[in-house]
Amino acid sequence: MIKSGLKLLVAMVMLGVPAGKLVLDNVDLALPGITALWKRRDTKDEEDVRTCFTHLVIAFLLIGDGDLIRRLIQVKGIKCQTTFSNYYTC
After folding, report:
1. What's the predicted TM-score (pTM) here?
2. CA gap 26, 28 in Å, rounded
């Protein structure tokens, strides 16, 4: 259920800058329950909750709007260190 919701948010964000801003305005990504999704790892599932949440953050970055990216970076709990620690050093 959580994965489906995250996939829906990714699809909405990928519609463009206005939709991305609406998602960021209406979904509080700083809630403890949402930031805890970074830790929900299932090694048996290729597309687990953590991967879906990472896709959501990447969707905001792919849009390429500077204001939207700035607002995303300012969200408490969305940190470069925790998000992409397995990929490269921030």
Report:
1. 0.77
2. 6
